[in-house]
Amino acid sequence: MRYERLRREMVKRQIEARGIDDPQVIAAMLKVPRHLFVSDALRDQAYGDFPLPIGEQQTISQPYIVAEMTQALALGPEDCVLEIGTGSGYQAAVLAQIVYRVYTVERLHPLLLNARRLFDELGYFNIVTRYSDGTTGWREEGPYDAIIVTAGAPKIPAVLIDQLKVGGRLVIPVGSAHTQDLVKIIKHRDGLRQANLGGCRFVKLIGEHGWKDS
């Protein structure tokens, strides 16, 4: 009950108050138990307005950013979504409440194992996981209605654009290693339409089409 109350407060104060109004996104954020996607020591902070460490020098994004990116994807119940960067698994779990299937790729094996365990325990059987370099996408399961990238890229990987359906949406942080702009791209038959959703800060997107692993 305590975590349910904290979750309701999170949605009211951090998400709805900042303009997130997609009822699917709000319902998903109310339902997914965010506190289970962080370590036991950080559970009391899970619903705070900030990111938290999850190990392997990675973070779980602040709730508002998760909601903003999810809303920007303009999702429908029959959509198939590709997520680059499983991390804690929280973003994928939110997506799984809304869409038919989520394909998620993670390059750090310990994070992927933990996320998969959580998905199974919580009954998110419409999430399909893969251990790989996410910057190359997952071509075998595409094309996708939407792609979400949960790490900051130096540029937009063309390989991900290629894996979008016509009419598909890509949301990705793009910029330097320290600060990025959140960019939304819609793929049309005659080209791409791009919008800047504002500044953000993510860990680096490591891989063949991202930053090099130092």
Can you walk me through this structure?
This protein has 214 residues and is an alpha/beta fold. The chain has one domain (2-200): 3-Layer(aba) Sandwich (Rossmann fold). It is built from six helices and nine strands, in the order ααββαβαβαββαβββ. The strands form two sheets. It has a seven-stranded mixed β-sheet with strand order 5-4-3-6-7-8-9. Strands 1-2 form a two-stranded antiparallel sheet. β7 and β8 form a beta hairpin. The relative contact order is 0.13. The mean pLDDT is 97.
Short description:
It is built from 6 helices and 9 strands. The protein is α/β, with parallel strands linked by helices.
Keywords:
7-stranded mixed β-sheet, Rossmann fold, two-stranded antiparallel sheet, 214 residues, alpha/beta, 9 strands, 28% strand
